[in-house]
Predict the 3D structure of the following.
Amino acid sequence: MTQDTRSVSEVGQRSLFYHGQAKDFVDLHEQVETSVYLLDSLESFLSTFQKDLSSVSGQISELQERSKDIDNRLKSRRRIEKPLSSLLSDLAIPPSLAVTVLDTDVGEPWIATITDLERRLDILKVRSRVKAARDLGDVAEGLRIVAATKLRTFFLALLQPIRTSVTTNMQVMQTSIFVKYRALYVFLQRQAPNVASEVQKAYTSTARTYYEAGFRRYVRSLGWIKARTPEKPESIISGNGDNGGPYLDQDRLAYAKMDGPSVILAYMADDKTHEEPIEAILRSLFLVLMDNATAEYAFIAAFFRSESFAPPPAMETDSAIFSPTATLLSPDIGFDDRRSNAGSEIGTHVSRPLSGNGHGPRDVTARPGFMDKTERAPLDAIWKQILDPVLEYCKTFVTTVLEPMPPAVPLLTMIRLMEAVITEVQKRDCPPLENFLFTMRLQLWPAFQKIMSEHCDSLKKLAEGRITSYFSRATSTTDASVANICNRYVVMFNSFVVLTDQEEETMIFSNLLRLRQELTKLIACHTENISDDVAKATKQSAMYEVLLQGLNKGTHLSAHPKSQKEIAYWAEKEEEARRRIVSIAQSRRIGKR
C-alpha cells in the first residue's frame, strides 16, 4: 500500500508539475508552430529569391554583352571619326570659296581659291557614289562654270596690251603675269578644255601678230642699212694693188661669234649715215631671232604644257568607309625666265645676260628636253603658228643677202655665225628653230662652194691667158697684179684659219688647196715668159716671199696646223727657187771660166 500510495503521490506531484508548466508548454508549442511557419515562409522566400537571383544573373550577362557591343561600336566610331570628318570637310564647299568665285574679280587670291575648287571638284567626282557628293554636284558645277567664264575674260583681257601696241614688252608680260597665273590656266585645261583651247588660240593669234609686226619693221630697218653698204662681189684676181691691197679685218671676223659686238637696233636705221657690214646685219637678225624664238618656246613649253588629270590623294583610313583611290601626283611646271630680251624693234631694248657659255641653271621641269615627242608635238605646233611669219621674213632676208653673192670671207663668217647660233639654240632646247637654222646653213654652204669655185676658175683662166669670168674683163698679168692676188690669197687663207676651229674641215681646206694649186700655176705662167732663168727664179722667189710674209704675220695664226703646212709648202717653193738661182749662177760662173 505504501508503495502504491507512494506511486500515486508521485503521479499527483507530476500532474501538478505539468499543470503548473502547461502554460509554458503551450507557449513553447505556439513558438514551435510559429517557427515552423516562419521556416516555411523562409523556405518560400528563399525559393523565390533563388529564382530572382537567377533572373538577375541573366540580366547581368545580357548587360555585359550589351556593354561589349557598345564598346565595340564606340571603337568603330572613333576609328572612322577622322576620315569621316575629313570627308565631310572635303565634300562641303566653304562659303568663302563660293563668295570669291561668285563675287570677286580674278586676281592673286584666285590662285589658291581655284586650286581648292579644283581639288573639291575632283573629290566630288571620285566620291560620286556618296549621296552628299551627288547633292553638291550641281552647286560645284555652277561654280566651275562661273570660274571658267571669269577666267576666259581675264586671260583675254591680259592679251589686250599686246594687241594694241607692238612696243609692249612680251617677255615681261609672260614672266610676270602669265606664268604667275598659270595655275588658273591649268584649271581651264582640266576642267574647261574648250575655254583653255580658246585662250590658247587667242594667245597664238596675238603673239603671231606681235612678232610679225615687230620683225617686219626690224627686217625693213636692216634692209635700209644693208642698202647703204652694198657688198660687191670681188674675184681674187680683181684690183692691181695700187690701193694697198686687202688686209685681215679682225673686227669683221668677230661677227662670226656669239659674244661680240652688240646687235643693231631698229632706230639706228633712222641715222642715214649709219653703216654696217653684211655680217653684222645678218648676225643682228639671227641673234634677235634666237633670243625671241627660244624665249617664246620656253614660255610655250612652261605655260601651255598639258598636265594629266590628278585626283586628290585619298587618306589611308578612307578604306574603313569607301574603296581606296589611287594617289596621282603631277609635277609643278616651272618657267625658265633665263632669257635675253634682244628685241630691237620688238621691245626697243637688247639685253643678253649670258653667263659662262651663255647658259645658267634652268628649271628642269620647264625644259622641253624632258618631254617625249607626244608632249612636244602640240607645243611645236603652237610655236610654228606664232613664228611662221618671222621665219619667212628671215628666210627672205637671207635670200637677199646672197643676191648678189657676197665675198667668200664674209660668207664664211656668216656660216660660222649660223653654226654658233645653232649650237646655242641646241643648248636652249628649241628644236623647231634648230631645224630652220639648219635649213639656212644648208643654203649658205652651196653659195660658199660656188664662190670658191669661181675664184679657182678665174685663177685658172688668168693663168691660161683667156680670162672671161663674171668679175672682170680680160687682162694680162703684171707683177703688181700677181702680188695683189698673192695678198688676197693670204688674207683669205688667214681669215679661213681664224674662222675654223677644227684642224680638218674638208669643205674649207679642200677649196683652199684647189686655190693654192691654181695660184702656183699662175705664178709659174706669169714668170714663164722671162727668158733669163735667174730673173725667172728671182721673180718666183719674190712672189713666194710675199706669201710667206703674209702667212707668218701673227703667231696665233701661224700656230694653226694648217697654217704650218701652208707655210712649209711655200717655204719649200721659195727654197727651190733660191736653189735654182744659186745653181744657175754657179753654172754660169763655170761656163765663163
Notes: The chain is about 70% helix and 0% strand. Confidence is low (pLDDT under 50) at residues 311-366, 466-472. The radius of gyration is 53 Å.
